Amino acid sequence: MKPPVNAAGQPMRERILLIGPEKSGKTHAHLSVAAMHQKTGSKATFFILDTDLAIERMLMPGGDFAGLSNIVYEEVSDWAALTDATKRFRDKIKTGDFLVVDMMTQAWEYVQRFYIEQIYGMDAETYFLVKQKEAHDAGKKVMNFGEAIEWPIVNKLYYPWATSLISNPAHVFMVAGEKELAARDREQMKDYIGQGVKPAAQKQTGHLAHTVLRVRSQKQGEPRFNTIGDRGRPALAGEVIKNFALSYLVKVAGWGLK
Asked: Which of 86, 123, 151, 176 can pair with 199 through a Cys bridge, CB separation 3.0 to 4.6 Å?
């Protein structure tokens, strides 16, 4: 597969964010791109940061993606593992490769847990049990999660990693869960109003992408895609897309198969 070129004749890089509920087809979408690259003889490697611990299952014999040999993935379950794996992948990436984060939702959770561990010297679960008991014994209101965190500091920890995803020669494909768009979000996240949901991730995640899409599966095997934001491409409005590589990258984004 070959991406479209810009006005200077240089290949354009994809920066895609795909959001959706569980089991909606997010992982299937980026693996379909890897499968089509392998089928068409592309030399691209897909480096996957697997926070969802799902890639091994998707590559099992007999499945849709058995036999893919162009994938390198690492299962990461905390902030240190995620940032270390990202650095290793960035050292190996070449032009035309893909860097995939599956999922950004857990990445945002990891950095919050890291903050609590570093500041309070215990894991998040233990910290909140201790604080809940202290509040209960004192007859006070139990604190919520946000009250334990200095958000500017957490964001300072998070942003260097997040921006490192796009400051390399690879295409970037990020996936995230979704959650309801609250009234307080509507002014800053106007693009999401039509869908009524936002990424279940750090609130600026959409700014890392050129293409933001939402997928839902109303029937088994029929993932429907909607465009939340895209640059210079036709919008999707509930189209059924079973092969993201063909139906989006080729038909909408202008990629070639050879």
From this structure: 176
Q: CATH number of the domain at 230, please.
A: 3.40.50.300
Name the residue among 39, 19, 38 with its Cα closest to residue 102: 19
Within a domain: residue 121?
no
Domain assignment present for 114: no
Number of domains composing the chain: 1
Q: How far apart are CA 75 and CA 198, in angstroms?
A: 25
Q: Is the pLDDT of residue 142 over 80?
A: no
In the DSSP assignment, the letter for residue 213 is: E
Strands 222-229 and 237-240: antiparallel
Smallest CA-to-CA distance from 228 within 217, 220, 236 is with 236
Residue with tokens 């299962």: 75
Q: How many CA atoms lie within 13 A of 146 on its CB side?
A: 1
111 is a domain residue: no
170 found inside a domain: yes
Domain assignment of residue 92, given as a range: 15-104+165-250
User: Residue 59 contacts by C-beta under 8 Å, 6 or more apart in sequence?
Assistant: 65, 66, 68, 71
Question: Is residue 165 a contact partner of residue 184, using CB atoms and an 8 Å limit?
Answer: no
Radius of gyration of the chain (CA): 20
Confidence band of 143 (pLDDT split at 50, 70, 90): low
